[in-house]
């Protein structure tokens, strides 16, 4: 096989293979692969290799590495995708429409912190009734533990989780149980340790809130965009994932006429045709712009769905009464009804948190509800709280059931956050394990200062580098033996089963979804075809009297 590398800013490139250096050859300027280097050599799978640029003798990992067994600063290792034995030949895929999504983080889903340990809990998800398992980023990052959003080698699966073979075993096991897999990918920035891309070529262009951003529209950006597109398609083709969740697409700086999101949509559509199964793209976007999910041929970006934080915010305020920060606007009367009808609260309205108007209205006649992923909790809305506390710490199991009913029986694509289904007592806090002591201290102090500005005492913010923070954030599966947690789980199972049993409760039509509110928005009635979802959000227990036949209730009353 030939070893190849894009390094247009250099006039000399070497590759070190098992300790032996070789000069690489450059494609001539003007050729189709101008800026690329190659070395024709027979390299067996499992061989370590690294690149040396110019006169610098510092070995660097391959930007397109698939395997980093010694971490993000070490040599890459060759990997043969075809050597893995799949058992999912009969897998026909899982579409996003009508699905229930379950979000998990491999490192805290089980105490084992690996893909293989997670496989042992997949039957729980089958029993719960979910359709798609969304996995937080698994790309390589520095240190053994972290959220995954500080990745620097996007094609290499984090070795402590089990590496590329471990992830394939997980995907294969999900498919064997009828579960599709959504992978969270981060193309808007790179992490602070091991981000060597800019040494090879013009990969970077400016900074955003989290780190260096990609050069998507400047000189040399064709190959940078190809880097993103090839990475995305590899997850579909080589690892058999069914969907990608694209992190914070609003932070992608891209002024081209054909945006990177549209290109991703087009290439995903082509891959779906080749593979003969549905493939989906889900965007996290802070823009509140429905054009994100409008098809390309209708001048949209072509995403299959986007996360709808406004639904979460309105539910959170209604259930908890919390109105700090960005929750303030959602205390407005009618906020919950508005988002249940049309996904966005800020649809051209004033946002006090941003200090400006924000968003654009959703055309409910053109955009279906399943184009919006909604949730009562997710990794951001839990993990970006100072102490990582879940909503179940603030509300009773009865109110939790009310919130779950509005999410699971509404017109949108519902998503659950791991442990939510049994009101897990474990928080999900921010944690990392950067080996560099200076970087570790910078992250530690930065986190405390950030939350100090938002009213939390710095002493309340857990130390992200303390192993105890990781331990606190790991699910305790023994809680399922406790009556309180078991009771909440039965509520969630019942709601998912109702959604699955009755097509009207999966109907994505926003036009046909009617919402009534009363008693200062504490009584919410959601009409779903012939069904009525009737919830009472008052703190005290209340008997709901209706003339209709009751097919399910959260308790005997």
List the helices and strands and how they pair.
Blueprint lengths: L1 E5 L6 E5 L2 E4 L1 E2 L9 E5 L7 E6 L22 E2 L23 E4 L1 H4 L5 H5 L2 H7 L3 E4 L3 E2 L12 E5 L5 H14 L3 E6 L11 H4 L3 E4 L4 E3 L6 H17 L5 E4 L13 H16 L4 E4 L21 E3 L1 H12 L14 H8 L6 E3 L4 E3 L13 E4 L3 H5 L13 H12 L4 E5 L19 H17 L13 H6 L10 H19 L12 E5 L4 E6 L2 E6 L21
Parallel strand pairs: 8-9, 8-21, 9-12, 12-15, 15-16, 16-17, 17-20, 20-21
Antiparallel strand pairs: 1-5, 2-3, 2-6, 4-5, 6-7, 10-11, 13-14, 18-19, 22-23, 23-24
Describe this structure in words.
This protein is an alpha/beta fold and 557 residues long. Helices cover 26% and strands 18% of the residues. It has helices at residues 106-109, 115-119, 122-128, 163-176, 197-200, 221-237, 260-275, 309-320, 335-342, 379-383, 397-408, 437-453, 467-472, 483-501; strands spanning 2-6, 13-17, 20-23, 25-26, 36-40, 48-53, 76-77, 101-104, 132-135, 139-140, 153-157, 180-185, 204-207, 212-214, 243-246, 280-283, 305-307, 349-351, 356-358, 372-375, 413-417, 514-518, 523-528, 531-536. It has an 8-stranded parallel β-barrel, surrounded by 5 helices. It has a 4-stranded antiparallel beta sheet with strand order 3-2-6-7, with no helix packed on it. The longest helix has 19 residues, at 483-501. The model has no long low-confidence stretch (mean pLDDT 94).
């Amino acid at each position: 096989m030939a070893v190849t590398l894009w390094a247009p800013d250099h006039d000399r490139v070497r590759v070190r293979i098992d300790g032996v250096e070789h000069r690489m050859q450059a494609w001539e300027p003007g050729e189709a692969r101008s800026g690329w280097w190659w070395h024709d050599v027979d390299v067996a799978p499992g061989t370590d290799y690294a690149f040396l640029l110019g006169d610098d003798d510092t070995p660097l990992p391959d930007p397109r590495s698939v395997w980093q067994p010694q971490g993000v600063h070490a040599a890459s290792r060759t990997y043969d995708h075809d050597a893995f034995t799949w058992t999912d030949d009969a897998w026909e895929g899982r579409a996003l429409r009508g699905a229930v999504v379950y979000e998990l983080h491999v490192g805290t889903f089980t105490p084992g912190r690996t893909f293989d340990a997670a496989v042992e809990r997949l039957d729980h998800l089958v029993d719960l009734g979910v359709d798609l398992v969304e996995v937080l980023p698994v790309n390589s990052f520095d240190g053994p533990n972290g959220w995954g959003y500080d990745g620097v080698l996007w094609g290499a699966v984090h070795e402590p989780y089990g590496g590329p073979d471990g992830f394939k075993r997980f995907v294969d096991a999900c498919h064997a149980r009828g579960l599709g897999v959504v992978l969270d990918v981060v193309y808007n920035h790179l992490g602070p340790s091991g981000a060597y891309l800019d040494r090879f070529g013009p990969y970077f262009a400016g900074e955003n809130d989290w780190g260096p951003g990609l050069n998507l529209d400047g000189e040399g950006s064709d190959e940078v965009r190809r880097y993103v597109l090839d990475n995305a398609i590899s997850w579909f083709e080589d690892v058999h994932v069914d969907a990608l969740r694209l992190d914070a697409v609003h932070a992608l700086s891209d002024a081209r006429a054909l945006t990177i999101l549209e290109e991703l949509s087009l290439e995903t559509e082509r891959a779906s045709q080749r593979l003969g199964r549905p493939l989906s793209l889900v965007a996290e976007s802070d823009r509140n712009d429905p054009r994100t999910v409008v098809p390309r041929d209708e001048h949209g970006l072509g995403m299959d769905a986007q996360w709808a934080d406004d639904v979460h915010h309105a539910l959170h305020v209604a259930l908890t009464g919390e109105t700090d920060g960005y929750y303030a606007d959602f205390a407005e009367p009618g906020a919950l009804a508005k988002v249940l009808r049309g996904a966005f609260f800020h649809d051209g309205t004033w946002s006090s948190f941003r200090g400006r108007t924000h968003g654009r209205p959703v055309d409910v006649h053109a955009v279906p509800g399943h184009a919006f992923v909604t949730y009562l909790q997710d990794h951001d809305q839990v993990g970006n709280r100072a102490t990582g506390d879940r909503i179940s710490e603030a509300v009773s199991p009865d109110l939790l059931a009310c919130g779950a009913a509005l999410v699971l029986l509404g017109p949108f694509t519902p998503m659950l956050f791991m442990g939510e289904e049994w009101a897990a007592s474990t928080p999900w806090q921010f944690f990392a394990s950067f080996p560099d002591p200076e970087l570790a201290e910078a992250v530690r102090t930065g986190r405390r200062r950030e939350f100090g500005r938002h009213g939390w005492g710095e002493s309340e913010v857990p130390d992200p580098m303390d192993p105890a923070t990781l331990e606190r954030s790991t699910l305790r599966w023994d809680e399922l033996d406790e009556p309180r947690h078991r009771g909440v789980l039965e509520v969630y199972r019942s709601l998912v089963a109702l959604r699955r049993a009755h097509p009207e409760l999966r109907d994505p039509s926003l036009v046909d979804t009617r919402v009534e509110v009363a008693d200062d928005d504490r009584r919410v009635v959601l009409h779903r075809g012939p069904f009525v979802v009737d919830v009472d959000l008052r703190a005290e227990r209340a008997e709901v009297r209706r003339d209709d036949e009751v097919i399910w209730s959260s308790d005997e009353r």
